[in-house]
Amino acid sequence: MADPMKIRAVAQADRIEVKILMAHEEESGFRKGADGALVPAHFISNVSVRLGGREVLRAQWGPAIAKNPFLQFAFRGGARGDELTVIWVDNRGDSRTDRIPVA
Amino acid sequence: MHRLGLAWLLLAMLGSGARADDPFASYRELFGDDNPAELAVAKGQELWAAPRGPQGVSLAACDLGLGPGVVAGAYAALPRYFADAGAVMDLESRLLHCMVTIQGFSRDELAAHAFSERGASQTDLEILVAYVASQSRGAPVDVPQSVREERESYARGRRLFYRRSGPYDFACASCHSLDHRRIRLQELPNLTGEEGARSAFTHWPAYRISQGAVRTMQWRMADCVRQQRLPELVLGSQASVDLITYLGVLARGGAMDAPSLRR
Fold first, then answer.
1. pLDDT average, residue stretch B6-25
2. In this structure, is residue B17 part of a structural domain?
3. Is B175 marked active-site?
């Protein structure tokens, strides 16, 4: 099973600042292992961030994302205490969902 | 006019001198608390408390020097002498000792896969080191010199630091005893001074951006020895512990800030 993300969401005056650190190998599919064979591609393909029922960010990622991706963004609307949900799905169908209240 | 413009440019560069010397400083700043080592810390916390190994027990009975199971502040006071093992041990030697004597793991198997290969996931040892070190963040380095064995370890470490050997006739001191030396782009810390020793000691273990992994102090020592073209530094060997003791004693009083972010 995938390892947990580290998420921080802090309410500012007019927006909520989000910082997400995801634990993922992010193999591009072009790297060769010690045996000389290509290491199969393994990367996060879809990211969705929701506040309650509202989706505030949706991303489609490819194999060019670096290992242990760090994602930072801000959005308007929402308040302290609201629950933020982050979901990622990778190209093998593996996924991870973590939730935190906005601080 | 041209001259004046150039002078201003030079002044501006001098003003941000620290930044220009260390392009990774701004990178570290951007990352803030989101050092990927935090992922290893979270896993290490679970690993520490999980019943594991042939004995099926956790590391709660492991004494890192401050009593069984006490993790907070322990890393800042290692290496130290352990009467139960009759030796001075650094964190990694002590963790191996606990995983063997308490959990029943095979020492040879642990030592054979102590550090993760490129592209592979972190080893249990690396993850545990990240966690234990994180529990000393902010604590002043207090590597003890209270018993004879600890003082002898320091003295041997000092001798090793200055001892030139190998095909390149290199000592640690060849690179690490002068200010403002660099290898490629990296500034080499002067480990004989308080400032350099503190900076080095308080920032390991560290997440190496170029390797995508948390690397430990034993790894750091072994890799320096490798670059000197010396025989492999054996994990947990007396030589490795002595070098870490020497550095730790010089770094006393510095505030621990590991796991950090390194190039």
1. 48
2. no
3. no
